[in-house]
Every structure is written in structure tokens, then in C-alpha cells.
């Protein structure tokens, strides 16, 4: 491992099977990466020669090479070093196994059988590189001409849409080095909390709903069916979190579970679900641990990106709406003590109860999901068109000012109050 100091412009020669890792320091810094010779990739996306790739503040990246390369970094980076030990060969072998299952599925589909490619779920505690491994496996699949579905069930970060949601996208192109996967036509369900434990009943309902929709998508498209699914999960792996993982496995009829870094979780899963292939993989030494403030700031960045795009390329709209034009519900009511529960009511019922919300100052800074449901009865399981943020509330004039990705008017659908908050400082 070679540690390098701060730099403005520096060349790196990488031997085969090595990785250059760096972080972009400073709030307004950018760093340009160029591949000068050889071949290299960033989390599975191949770099074009001599093309500058820009990384922005907060980026934590690794440039891996199978056969050796020379790279140039321009700008101030932190903790920059070349790692000679990486788990990339194991990750590639895992991809090769998934590819074999896809080929198998292809052959079955050609014979007219009702089959599909591997549904793979990545699990492990926080900060072990689950999202990164999803990206690598998806990129390798696309580079083989596959069209896999990516499902992100990690409500803490919400890489599709915003934190507090679960989402799915069809991956048709390798991720862009700086911006990740293209997010055209994502399927998004609003959960409204940052941890599944906040309303596990509702979380499990949404997971089952997502699984059914993804299943339908595969039935309707043979190429997608053979390519399979890669599912990212939350880093919550103990007690109820563990049960929720087993529910995901059941709902999606998962074929392969990849456990990153935690042997205990691996052994528990092997014991409890012996009929699913469980694979243990080590985490990469490059994965950067995030402190709680870093996570908060990453969530904020995610919502800012939702409205303004990466590096302010979109222009969201802010406008006023009459309170009387808004129909808002909240999902889940506070639990009643057992003694107060009506005899025919189950504990789970209050978790999925729809509670009408009167617009008022308490909505300020909250994100509201614009549901595609027009009737309250469909609210729980409808996906969402997008999100508005309440910028201001004028109680006197009964007006609410909102930030929206779309111009006014708001669609005449129902809004769902979420626990997610955002302060717009742009
Ligand atoms: N090999 C690597 N070298 C440098 N940075 C890396 C490497 N792998 C991952 N990272 C960085 O580490 C950070 C954490 O990785 P990642 O988001 O994949 O972890 P995670 O397990 O999904 O976390 P969480 O459970 O919190 O969602 C990311 O910023 C990612 O870019």
C-alpha cells in the first residue's frame, strides 16, 4: 500500500489487480480523473481513455484495474493510496456464477419454460459496501448485454428517489462514473421513515408490493426475466431487522443471498433458510465508514439532488397552493394500550391506519409524497409520482408554499405526510 500526500496533479501507475482509492476533500473541491494508459473501471464502469471524469466534494471512489494502467488525478484528494488487496476477483467470480444462472434461464425461456434469472439479495451491516457491490454486479451484468432490475430497499439512504422510499429501476446502461445509474421511470413507493422499525408492518407490505410488481415486469419481458434482480437492503440485521430480511427473501423468492462481512448473519441465514444459496463475501478495505453527521448530510444531498440535479442542473418550481386544495394523509396512528383496543382490532391495524392531516405550520420542511392514488383506499400500496417539500405555511391566508420538481398545478391526487424533512437553502 503506497500512501500519497495532498496533491494538485499526480500520476499513478497501477499493477494488475490493484485499486487507487481516494476521497475528495473540501466543500467546494472537485477532482478530475483521467485514464492515461491501460484499462480501468470505477465500481464496474469502464473508463474511456483520456476522458476527464469529475468527482465532487464528499466522493469516495476506487479505480480498479484488472490488467494494469496509468491514471492521473487533478485536484485535492484525501487518503489517496493504491491498494494491492481487494475482493474484486471474488466479486467477479460471483458475477460469473450469476451469469451462469442467467444463461440457464435463457435456455429455459427459449424452451418455453416459466423460468427467470437469479434474484440476488445483498445483506450485511452498515458500511460494508452493499450499495457498491450492487453497482458492480449490475454494471458487469449490463456489460454482458443483460437488463437487470435494481431494487433498493434501503430506506435510510434511498438511492432511487429520496430517503424514506423503496425503489426499483431497470438498468439498461452501465452507471455513469460520477452520477450513478440513470433513473428514468423509476418505480417508487413511499415509506416515509428512515428506518424500517418505525413501521415494520407497513414496510413489509411495501416490500411485498414491490416484489409483486417486479415479478410482473419480469413476466412481461424475456430479456429482463433472464437478467434477474439485484436487491440492496438496509444495514439493520439484528432481531426485527433480521426477520425483515427473511421477509424480503420470501417475498421476492430470492435465489441467492450475498452476505457481506458478517459471519454471524451468514450462519443464521444458512441455518434458517437452507433452501436458498447463501454466499459469504468479505468487504473491501476501501469502504469508508460514515458517521451519523455524514449520513445526515448524505440524505440532505440526496434530496437536494432530487430537486436540483447533481450540480444544480435542474430548476425546480416553488409556488403557493390553497390549503383547501390539499388532501393529506399520514400512514399509521399511535398505538393504543391493549386495554383500550376494540376486541376486533389487531395491533397491526393501527400501523396501516390512514389518518387525515389538516394542513398547518407543523408541515413546514416536511416532504409530502404525491401518491398516484386518487382514493384513500389505494393509498397504502400505490406508488408515488414524486415529492413536494413544504417551504412555508401561511396559516392566516390558508396558503402553503411548496417546492416541486414539476410546475403547478399539483396533480389532483392524495399527498402523504412523511417524517423526512428538508431545509431548502438554494
Ligand atoms: N473499494 C472502495 N474504495 C473506496 N471507497 C469505497 C470502496 N467501496 C466503497 N467505497 C465507498 O464507501 C462508502 C460506503 O459504501 P456503500 O454505500 O457501498 O456501503 P453500504 O454497506 O451500502 O452502506 P449502508 O449500509 O450505510 O447503506 C461509499 O461512499 C462508497 O463510495
UniProtKB/TrEMBL annotation:
Keyword entries, A-Z: ATP-binding, mRNA processing, Nucleotide-binding, Nucleus
Residues binding ATP: 19, 60, 127-132
Clp1 C-terminal domain residues: 315-424
Gene3D superfamilies with a match to the protein in the record: Clp1, DNA binding domain, P-loop containing nucleotide triphosphate hydrolases, Pre-mRNA cleavage complex subunit Clp1, C-terminal domain
Swiss-Prot/TrEMBL GO biological process terms: brain development; mRNA 3'-end processing; tRNA splicing, via endonucleolytic cleavage and ligation
Location(s), subcellular: Nucleus
The keyword Iron appears for this protein: no
Domain of life: Eukaryota
Residues of the Clp1 N-terminal domain: 13-105
Domain spans labelled Clp1 P-loop: 124-309
PANTHER family tied to this protein: CLEAVAGE/POLYADENYLATION FACTOR IA SUBUNIT CLP1P, POLYRIBONUCLEOTIDE 5'-HYDROXYL-KINASE CLP1
Protein's UniProt name: Protein CLP1 homolog
Taxon lineage: Eukaryota, Metazoa, Ecdysozoa, Arthropoda, Crustacea
